């Protein structure tokens, strides 16, 4: 199928907008490539330091003729998704030796869990943890003793941060290695129901805790389709996993063999062979468009409207929300996975998973199929599902039909002809909204607003019954420069309760919502943010706001003369504690959300 003309036009727009930056990036990567393998150029004392911690690999590393793989790991056992990585490095070293290579843990990166910090002060470090991960990845790879890298990471800021750092070493071949999702716990609908009962005071803390433990119960990623699992879908479409690796459960033979295959693929695509595939060339404009397309086609996380622009900029590529909006009008919605449906990612995988989605989008001319990947010269390699034939890893063709058409559909019979993303603009600025899980009769909300400066104020007003009416809840001073742009996911249960009561409810914020954004319409990432003069700072309680996803409108219905004359609200004082004060410089220099919400990129002018 020929490429859809609008997908081609958006890609051309990105290529034209990026041409100078991308040329400069590729020139820098060529320069790093031409400097050659680092180890032969290092002094003997430098090399001795690099080899001192290893035993069985030392002789091979000393020769300097085979690839040395740098492992960058986000392991910790406080994150269920990253706990399986505990044994990976020692296994990977054995598998590297089998392929005539060596491997070393180049470094660890911080990996915080948004699920633990959600709604608390630690969440204000979350977005900037991504920049910290990027810088830690650069530190890990800076020793100049690696000819390739394996990146171990899955969750929200971790994959974007790993990619941002890795792309500054774009002359090296790299592969991302996931660990897979935990097995299914209680139904997502049951989990949501108990949360809403607790918000109403109809369930005890003990009942809520038991429900949450039944949902989050083992090693592996959380099973809802939030940012972590959207990461996996995106990385598959960029060609940076072994095909079909995303949603194979931890602790299985298939999971182990996919990891072995990833490690042993790296020497095959190294710069000493004739199949050199550096990550900086794999992640081109087409790969970035492919990532955006699959996120839209699966109702993926709104966080990637910040993360994907930041990743792209690290490869010299400029993508903006207008590109997402244009793509969303032509990308069909093929998947319904919680919170955009009732199934979890295990059900999604059983129905066909990422490989089915990629096959259908290629069949419909919605994806660039001719991209280079770590596996081959076409994204078609990612349309076949991994399996075991005895102990041998193989890839098999999909059935032509979905395993469950309530979860996953073909290109000919999508859930919707459009993806789930829209841009909103008006006198409040520019925001984005995920509508794939929002009922169509809720796409337009016009109601008086109630203005808050933090989540706790919203919860207090909800408990006092002050929001029992049609209302647009405004939460400002939540952008990158204000407090690090924490997710406001804890607002979902009370707003859901209000909507269930029949009220017309919406959220407007310069902060983030969540990869689990759901049924309540939410205009998020509003730019410019309140800090620095964004119009959201002019709002007062009682102002009527019109949010219309159909028409792309977000405006305060205030007399223009009065609106122009209004002063900005004073921001709340900056808070210290939980390490927040250490990130003051990042807050000061952070870019707007549409440019990636990054302090690092703004400072480096990438």
UniProtKB/TrEMBL annotation:
NCBIfam families: edd (TIGR01196). SUPFAM superfamilies: IlvD/EDD N-terminal domain-like (SSF143975), LeuD/IlvD-like (SSF52016). It comes from Sphingomonas tagetis. Its EC number is 4.2.1.12. The keyword Nucleus does not apply. This is Phosphogluconate dehydratase. InterPro entries: 6-phosphgluc_deHydtase (IPR004786), Dihydro-acid_dehy_C (IPR042096), DiOHA_6PGluconate_deHydtase_CS (IPR020558), ILV_EDD_C (IPR056740), ILV_EDD_N (IPR000581), IlvD/EDD_N (IPR037237). One of its GO terms (molecular function) is metal ion binding.
């Amino acid at each position: 199928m020929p490429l859809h003309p609008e997908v081609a036009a958006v890609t051309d727009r990105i290529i034209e907008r990026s041409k100078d930056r991308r040329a400069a990036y590729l020139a820098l990567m060529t320069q790093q490539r031409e400097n050659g393998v680092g180890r032969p150029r290092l002094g003997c004392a430098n090399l001795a330091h690099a080899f001192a911690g290893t035993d069985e690999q030392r002789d091979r590393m000393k020769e300097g003729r085979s690839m040395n793989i740098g492992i960058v790991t986000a392991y910790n056992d406080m994150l269920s998704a990253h706990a399986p990585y505990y044994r990976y490095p020692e296994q990977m070293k054995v598998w590297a030796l089998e392929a005539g290579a060596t491997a070393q843990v180049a470094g660890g990166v911080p990996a915080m869990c948004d699920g633990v910090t959600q709604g608390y002060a630690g969440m204000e470090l979350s977005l900037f943890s991504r920049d910290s991960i990027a810088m830690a990845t650069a530190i890990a790879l800076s020793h100049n003793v690696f000819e390739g890298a394996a990146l171990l990471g899955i969750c929200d800021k971790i994959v974007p941060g790993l990619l941002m750092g890795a792309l500054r070493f774009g002359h090296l071949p790299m592969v991302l290695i996931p660990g897979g999702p935990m097995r299914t716990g209680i139904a997502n609908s049951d989990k949501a129901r108990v949360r809403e009962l607790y918000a109403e005071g109809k369930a005890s803390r003990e009942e809520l805790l038991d429900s949450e433990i039944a949902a989050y119960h083992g090693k592996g990623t959380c099973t809802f389709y939030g940012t972590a699992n959207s990461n996996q879908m995106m990385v598959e479409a960029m060609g940076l996993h072994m095909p079909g690796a995303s949603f194979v459960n931890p602790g299985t033979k298939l999971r182990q063999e996919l990891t072995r295959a990833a490690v042993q693929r790296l020497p095959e695509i190294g710069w000493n062979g004739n199949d050199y595939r550096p990550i900086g060339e794999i992640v081109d404009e087409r790969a970035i468009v492919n990532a955006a397309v699959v996120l839209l086609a699966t109702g993926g996380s709104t966080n990637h409207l910040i993360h994907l622009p930041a990743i792209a900029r690290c490869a010299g590529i400029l993508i903006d929300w207008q590109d997402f909006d244009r793509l969303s009008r032509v990308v069909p919605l093929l998947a319904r996975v919680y919170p955009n449906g009732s199934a979890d990612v295990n059900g999604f995988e059983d129905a066909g998973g990422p490989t089915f989605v990629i096959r259908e989008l290629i069949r419909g001319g919605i994806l660039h199929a001719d991209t280079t990947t770590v596996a081959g010269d076409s994204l078609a390699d990612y349309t076949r599902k991994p399996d075991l034939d005895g102990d041998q890893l193989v890839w098999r063709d999909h059935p032509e039909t979905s395993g469950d058409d309530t979860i996953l559909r073909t290109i000919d019979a999508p859930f919707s002809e459009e993806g789930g993303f829209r841009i909103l603009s008006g006198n409040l600025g520019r925001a984005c909204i995920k509508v794939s899980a929002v009922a169509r009769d809720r796409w337009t909300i016009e109601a008086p607003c109630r203005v808050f400066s933090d989540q706790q104020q919203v919860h207090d007003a909800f408990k006092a019954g002050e929001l029992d009416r049609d209302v647009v809840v405004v939460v400002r001073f939540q952008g990158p420069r204000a407090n690090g742009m924490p997710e406001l996911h804890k607002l979902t249960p009370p707003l859901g309760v209000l909507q269930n009561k029949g009220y017309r409810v919406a959220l407007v914020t310069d902060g983030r919502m969540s990869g689990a954004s759901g049924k309540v319409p939410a205009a998020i990432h509003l730019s410019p943010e309140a800090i620095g003069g964004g119009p959201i700072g002019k709002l007062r309680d009682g102002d009527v706001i019109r949010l219309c996803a159909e028409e792309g409108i977000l405006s305060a219905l205030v007399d223009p003369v009065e609106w122009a004359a209004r002063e900005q609200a004073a921001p709340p004082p900056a808070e210290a504690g939980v390490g927040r004060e250490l990130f003051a410089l990042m807050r000061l220099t952070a870019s707007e959300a549409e440019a990636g919400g990054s302090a690092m990129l703004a400072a480096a002018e990438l």
